């Protein structure tokens, strides 16, 4: 299996924040930001796997600063770590006041994607090789994040088992 460099998975998406993208505070809807995050992360994952991918998990999306109407929002993503069929993708969201040039990191997120074949079956992927200090730091800290994800997933399964699938009016 060939080896791929992190830099080859990088993707960038920029957009201006318009009134339909905002809430009553004139800041960008969190759900819109989350949609952008999933979209750009999927591009990075597909660039790495060169196949279809599915989102397996989204770690917490940490909103650090509001994104205001009229600003530009720029998302950068790249694959930080790979396992046999899955990969972790980091996304950074930066807002820029286009009139002053002031920039803020507004959100960060880690997502996990699984590469799948034409039948939707997980498929093996290449390892990713970090080169820069940032890439190496994120790569080296990824196994601990993966461990926490596995624990969280098991807890989610327990919760799902407890709450069940019945409609509200079918519960006792």
pLDDT averaged over residues: 95
Shape field: globular
Strand fraction equals 25-35%
Overall structural class, as computed from helix and strand content, comes to alpha+beta
Helical region count?
A: 2
- Our Rg estimate from Cα atoms comes to 18 Å
Distance between the termini: 54 Å
Write the layout of secondary structure elements.
Layout: E1 4-5, E2 11-16, H1 30-49, E3 52-58, E4 62-63, E5 72-82, E6 86-96, E7 103-116, E8 128-129, H2 133-163
Parallel strand pairs: 1-8
Antiparallel strand pairs: 2-5, 3-7, 4-7, 5-6, 6-7
Write up this protein.
The longest helix has 31 residues, at 133-163. 29% of the residues are buried. This protein has 172 residues and is of the alpha+beta class. It has helices at 30-49, 133-163; strands at 4-5, 11-16, 52-58, 62-63, 72-82, 86-96, 103-116, 128-129. Strands 2, 3, 4, 5, 6 and 7 form a 6-stranded antiparallel sheet that branches. Strand 5 and strand 6 (86-96) form a beta hairpin. The chain is globular, with a radius of gyration of 18 Å.
Task: Quickly list its features.
alpha+beta, two-stranded parallel ribbon, 32% strand
Quick summary:
This protein is an alpha+beta fold and 172 residues long.
């Amino acid at each position: 299996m060939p080896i791929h460099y992190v830099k080859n998975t990088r993707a960038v998406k920029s957009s201006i924040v318009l009134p339909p993208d905002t809430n009553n505070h004139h800041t960008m809807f969190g759900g819109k930001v989350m949609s952008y995050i999933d979209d750009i992360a999927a591009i990075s994952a597909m660039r790495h796997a060169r196949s279809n991918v599915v989102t397996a998990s989204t770690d917490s999306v940490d909103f650090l600063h509001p994104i205001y109407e009229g600003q530009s929002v720029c998302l950068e993503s790249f694959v930080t770590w790979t396992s046999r069929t899955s990969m972790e993708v980091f996304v950074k969201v930066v807002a820029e006041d286009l009139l002053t040039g002031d920039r803020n990191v507004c959100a960060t997120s880690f997502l996990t994607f699984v590469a799948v074949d034409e039948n939707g079956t997980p498929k093996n992927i290449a390892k990713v090789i970090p080169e820069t200090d940032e890439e190496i730091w994120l790569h080296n800290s990824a196994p601990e994040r993966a461990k926490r994800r596995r624990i969280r997933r098991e807890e989610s399964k327990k919760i799902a088992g407890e709450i069940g699938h019945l409609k509200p009016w079918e519960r006792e």
